[in-house]
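Give me the fold.
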Amino acid sequence: MKVAVATDSGQVSAHFGRCAEYTLADIENAKVVKTGVIPNPGHEPGVLPRYLAEKGVKVIICGGAGPKAQAIFAQEGIQVRMGVFGPVDAALEQFAAGILTQGESTCDHD
């Protein structure tokens, strides 16, 4: 399974669309087997969910996302795990192990 983490300086970004880059990870058998980083091509409504879907992403991990983005992610078959903070590597390891703690979205717009 391919997972994307909204990333700012090695940390999970508070907003999926305003991050500097995305850390992509392949997870197999509850382990992170491969990671890479891709740049954020820009925050335009509807673009990022399709961009990540084209990369094969099935889950995005971030601090928050607006309701429109969440709906588009759902249309693309991508699960959104929000309210996540801390180092990207830790978030990926926790997700792979099935113990990632989520919280409320940090996104403050509709």
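Strands lie at 2-8, 11-12, 21-28, 31-39, 57-61, 79-81.
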